[in-house]
Structures are given as structure tokens and as C-alpha cells.
Design brief:
Layout lengths: L2 H4 L8 H19 L11 H10 L4 H9 L18 H14 L1 H21 L2 H12 L4 E4 L16 E6 L2 E12 L6 E7 L9 E6 L9 E6 L10 E12 L3 E2 L5 H36 L8 H30 L4 H27 L13 H8 L7 H21 L34 H14 L6 H24 L12 H24 L6 H4 L1 H14 L9 H17 L31
Helix pairs in contact: 2-5, 5-6, 5-8, 6-7, 6-8, 8-9, 8-10, 9-10, 9-15, 9-17, 9-18, 10-12, 10-15, 12-14, 12-15, 13-14, 13-15, 14-15, 14-17, 15-17, 17-18
């Protein structure tokens, strides 16, 4: 089986219009939300932080986004919405999440996470009804399977079960913490429908809270959370709750497979949206070391700030490639999605800790629009769905496949199409129904090998290109070592609790991250001189290599300076710190930093 055989062909629909429309909508949301640092802006950071301190949703801002049709972003274009591709969805939502991830959750992104099962396997009527609900400003929420701890008492059981009865199902059980449960108009319930454990133990049911008898569905008290305090979390308890047969999504027992397919989209989207949220904290850190200073930034701050900037570009590259793979290579995107979800959240947490050292006492100014983002984001990440549970799930997806990949895929698979990495290239629209949960080869490791080979041919150019070629070959060497070790894993699957297996998963995921960075750098056409410069990729890969304990060569003296210079330039122009740098929604500070330019033609 080859990658080309699994590549989804682009539709005849005008791709350029979808791309342009998404950029225009992102710019409109940016303008509507206004200058985040303006204390008089009712949608600015000061107002959002104040709402969080009161533990109330920012009702005015949520209403503004609803009036502007944010709910349409979560509905496929085929059903009257604006959802065409996952990467374009993230582009549109970034202005919201750059300000506050809690605002993004409270404004309806959880509806997308819940509705994914409907877009993947729902009947025509279920899809139309769900689309009409979201387009009309309604909300959906998901109740995923979450087993109770072993020491939990019976009344704390979080399992929801559904028993087949004449004409439908009877649902019982409870979940103690459901996002937006009290405001949801549709509940997507992953209920246990078979007593025996296994892949066919759960099914997905659609419940209409307004249509249930009050005695059969009870809303439990609101749960106080450490993070995202303005987003309502509460519990739900079902007691012999009747659900009609046509509420079943897909077939009986499809719940686990649907959850894994939807998880790829939801997790990749979250990684793509949390990364720009760290933008705001990096902006605070640059402000802290430049505000009121006429001279150059102290050398002790250049290394951590440039390093975090490079990490953000790397995380953005990983998430963006994963999002694009969902459209272009849906049969094999599961490996990349799991690796990205495994690496990015942890990397961003490390970056926030590094930025905390730069911010110093400013990091305790929790109510400040200029500096309050650090503390809030560190709290919000704990409940954003990217914590330990997601890490364990990613391990469970990757561990059983490493042995087979080592024996049959690595160094044998063809490279993916170049459109995977090129942000302006055409892609087919996202189709949840095509997303697979296993198989499909490993196109990212093939991309790494191909990038390293092309760079090796350019080593004679010297400079940063030669250094990048050395680093790329180090990652290929790491892949060779992984192949030898993973070949020894049992064919029946590796034990998730084995520390050695966990280390292999970590190493593999970071190699995939390096492949994404190289692929994105190679895809540059020179329209952005900084992204075409190898300096940022060199710094990003050196930090990934450091985490892998690879023998990373010393960076050229000007590499850090180039990356830091671009960071300050973007800060002064009010732009973001990711691969996509939209026009600012605020007046930018004066000043300009040097921009690097590429010296060699890259790419296949």
C-alpha cells in the first residue's frame, strides 16, 4: 500500500475561495474583538480576566461571537456551515484563543468536539438537525466514557450505560463533570451498551435535554474548577431515561471507533489553538524585558525568549501538518495526530515555565491585561483536555503500532505529497468518514528521510544549511536506532506500563515533530523571508534534539540573534508568533528588527 493510493484528491470546488474566506473571517474576528490591551475594550484581556475572577462567562463577548455566526464554523459546508478544513478552522478561531482559551470553550468549540461523531457517522437527519441547531446558536456537549476510580463509592460512578429496550434504549448513570452541560441543547453520549469489555462495548446516542422528563435527567450542581472558571462545568445524572432508537449514531458498538476518529480532529484542533494562546504570554515576556528600555535587551533574556519562539513555531508546524493530514491523508493521519497531541501540550507547559522566569514578579500580576495571561493560561490548561488522560490515550494508540512500523514501514514508505506542508497548497475538504484509526503507513518518517537526503546534497553551501543538514541526519540516526529497538517489541502489542515503551513513544513522537519542522521549512517559497531562513528551524530542531539527548552541534553565533530579532520585530508590529502572522488588531509599538533572508533554493 502506498501513500499516493491513500491521498484524497482535491475537489472541484474552488479551494482558493475557502482559503481566502477563512482568512477574511479570521481578520473580522480579530477586528471585532479589538485591541486586547485596551482597558476600555469590553472584549479585551482586562475584561476577560475580570470575568474569570468573578467565575462568570464573559457574556457580552460570547454574545458578540454568536451574533457573528461563530457556530457556523463548526458545521460542514455541505450542511450550510463554514467548516471546510481543520487547518482553516484553526486559522479562523485563533483570534479568539489567542486572547483566552476559556473564551473559545465558552463560545462553542465544545460543540465541534461533540458534533464530530455526528459528522462522522450520523444519519442524514441527524446531521441536518445538528447543523440547524448549531447554525441557530445552539450548543452541543459530549459525555465521553470515563471510568470511576477504583476507590470511588457507588454514588460517584461516572459510567453511563444504555440498555436496549423496545423502541430504543434506557440510559442510566452519571457524569460529574461535563463542560457546558447546563447550557447544552444536545448531548452526545458515549454510553456502555455491552457488559463485556472490548472495542464494541460502547455506542453513541443523541439526547435532547429539553425532551426528557425531569425525573429521568437531573442536572447536578456546578463543579468549581481551578482553570477556565468562567466556563460552566456541571454533572448529569440519568435514571431510566428513555431514548428512541433513531438516537443511535452509526451502529451499536461503534462508540470506541467513533471516539478515536473524532479524537484525532479534536486533539489536533486543540493543539493548533492552544499554541497561539501561548503567543500572548510570550508577548508579555517581551514587553517585560523591553518596556521603558532604550538600549538592547539583556543577553540573559535572549536565549530563553528566542528558544520559546522557536518552540512555538515548531508546535505550530506540528499541529498545522496534522490538521492538513486529516484532509489529505485521512487513512494514515492517526499516527501523526497522536504524536502531535503527545508532544505539543507538554512542550507548551515547559515553555510557560521558561517564560515565568523571564516575567519574574510580573507573572503575579494576575489582573493585568499586560501580564495576567501567564497565570490564567497555566490554570486553564489543566482543564482544556490536553492533560494526563490525553497522554495515556496517545500512548495507547502509538504503542501497539511501533513494532509493525519498525518492521515494515520505516525507511520503506514513500514520502507524502508536498501539499501536506505547503500552507497555500490546495487540499480536499475534511471528511470525518474517511478518517481511519489504524494502518496507512508512516508518511512523516518518510518525510524526515527525504528532507535529510535533500539537505545532505546542500551541505556544500555551508552556513546554516550545513548545520541543518547535520541535525537532520542526527534525527534520521535516531529513527534508525528506534527501528532496531522497536523491532524487538512483541507483535501482540507493547505494554503501556513498561517504562521502556514509554521512552520509545516519547522518542518517536519527537522525531515526528522534527519531520514536521523540516517539512514546513522546506515548503517555504520565500514570500516570508524569516520562515524561509533556516535559522528558526535550526534552533527549533536543536531544542527537540536536546530533549532527545542527541549530540546537537553548537549553533552558529547569529542563529539566535536572527530568531530573536524576528521576535522583537513581530512584537513591535503587534503580530503573532506562529507560522501565520495576521494583521494586528492594536496599535503596534514603534521599532523594527532585522529580518533574515534565505540564501538557497530549498525543497524537492
Amino acid at each position: 500500500m502506498t501513500i499516493s493510493a491513500e491521498t484524497v484528491q482535491s475537489p472541484a470546488a474552488a479551494h482558493g475561495r475557502a482559503e481566502a474566506d477563512a482568512s477574511a473571517r479570521a481578520a473580522r474576528f480579530e477586528a471585532l474583538l479589538g485591541d486586547p490591551y485596551d482597558l476600555g475594550n469590553p472584549h479585551g484581556l482586562h475584561a476577560l480576566f475580570a470575568a474569570d475572577a468573578r467565575r462568570t462567562p464573559p457574556a457580552g463577548t460570547e454574545a458578540l461571537l454568536a451574533r457573528e455566526g461563530l457556530g457556523a464554523e463548526f458545521v460542514p459546508a455541505a450542511y450550510g456551515g463554514r467548516l471546510t478544513r481543520a487547518d482553516l478552522l484553526v486559522r479562523v478561531l485563533r483570534p479568539v484563543f489567542r486572547r483566552d482559551i476559556a473564551l473559545g470553550f465558552g463560545s462553542g468549540v465544545t460543540s465541534l468536539f461533540a458534533a464530530g461523531a455526528v459528522w462522522a457517522a450520523g444519519s442524514g437527519r441527524q446531521r441536518r438537525d445538528t447543523a440547524d441547531l448549531l447554525l441557530g446558536g445552539g450548543r452541543a456537549t459530549a459525555l465521553h466514557h470515563a471510568p470511576a476510580p477504583a476507590d470511588a463509592s457507588p454514588h460517584q460512578d461516572r459510567t453511563v450505560t444504555a440498555h436496549a429496550k423496545a423502541g430504543g434504549y434506557r440510559v442510566d448513570g452519571r457524569r460529574d463533570m461535563v463542560v457546558d452541560a447546563e447550557r447544552a441543547d444536545l448531548q452526545v453520549v458515549y454510553a456502555r451498551t455491552a457488559a463485556a469489555p472490548g472495542a464494541r462495548s460502547h455506542s453513541v446516542l443523541l439526547l435532547d435535554p429539553a425532551g426528557r422528563h425531569p425525573g429521568h435527567l437531573r442536572h447536578l450542581p456546578r463543579v468549581e474548577t481551578l482553570g477556565m472558571r468562567g466556563v460552566p462545568f456541571s454533572g448529569l445524572e440519568f435514571t431510566d431515561c428513555a431514548v428512541p432508537a433513531d438516537a443511535l449514531v452509526g451502529g451499536a458498538g461503534d462508540g470506541t471507533e467513533l471516539a478515536l476518529r473524532v479524537f484525532q480532529v479534536n486533539g489536533s484542533v486543540l493543539c493548533g489553538l492552544v499554541t497561539p494562546a501561548v503567543d500572548t504570554v510570550l508577548h508579555s515576556a517581551v514587553r517585560a524585558v523591553t518596556a521603558g528600555r532604550g538600549g538592547p535587551v539583556a543577553k540573559r533574556w535572549r536565549k530563553p525568549l528566542a528558544g520559546v519562539f522557536a518552540d512555538l513555531l515548531a508546535c505550530d508546524a506540528m499541529a498545522t501538518v496534522a490538521l492538513r493530514a486529516l484532509s489529505l491523508l485521512p487513512a494514515g493521519a492517526h499516527l501523526l495526530a497522536a504524536a502531535v497531541m503527545y508532544v505539543v501540550p507538554g512542550q507548551l507547559r515547559e515553555d510557560l515555565e521558561e517564560l515565568a522566569t523571564v516575567l519574574g514578579s510580573h507573572g503575579y500580576e494576575h489582573a493585568s491585561a499586560e501580564y495576567g495571561a501567564l497565570g490564567k493560561l497555566m490554570r486553564d490548561l489543566t482543564v482544556a483536555g490536553l492533560g494526563p488522560t490525553g497522554t495515556v490515550l496517545c500512548r495507547s494508540l502509538l504503542a501497539p503500532q511501533l513494532g509493525g512500523l519498525a518492521r515494515g514501514s520505516w525507511f520503506a514508505e514513500p514520502e507524502p505529497p508536498p501539499e501536506l506542508f505547503h500552507s497555500a497548497a490546495e487540499l480536499p475538504f475534511l471528511d470525518y468518514g474517511l478518517i481511519a484509526v489504524a494502518g496507512g503507513g508512516d508518511f512523516m518518517c518518510a518525510a524526515l528521510v527525504g528532507s535529510a537526503a535533500r539537505l545532505a546534497a546542500l551541505r556544500g553551501a555551508g552556513g546554516h544549511i550545513a548545520e541543518l543538514a547535520v541535525l537532520a541526519e542526527r534525527f534520521v540516526g535516531e529513527l534508525r536506532a528506534l527501528r532496531e529497538e522497536c523491532r524487538r517489541l512483541p507483535t501482540s502489542g507493547a505494554a503501556l506500563t513498561d517504562p521502556a515503551v514509554i521512552v520509545l513513544i516519547d522518542r518517536y513522537s519527537r522525531v515526528v515533530g522534527a519531520a514536521a519542522v523540516l517539512g514546513v521549512w522546506e515548503s517555504q517559497d520565500g514570500s516570508d523571508p524569516f520562515l524561509a531562513d533556516p535559522a528558526w528551524a535550526l534552533l527549533a530542531l536543536s531544542r527537540i534534539g536536546g530533549n532527545l539527548a542527541l549530540p546537537v552541534p553548537d549553533l552558529p553565533h547569529d542563529c539566535q540573534d536572527r530568531v530573536f530579532g524576528e521576535l522583537v520585530r513581530r512584537y513591535r508590529e503587534g503580530r503573532g508568533f506562529g507560522l501565520d502572522t495576521p494583521a494586528p488588531a492594536r496599535a503596534a509599538p514603534t521599532g523594527r528588527a532585522r529580518t533574515a533572508t534565505a540564501q538557497v533554493r530549498k525543497g524537492p
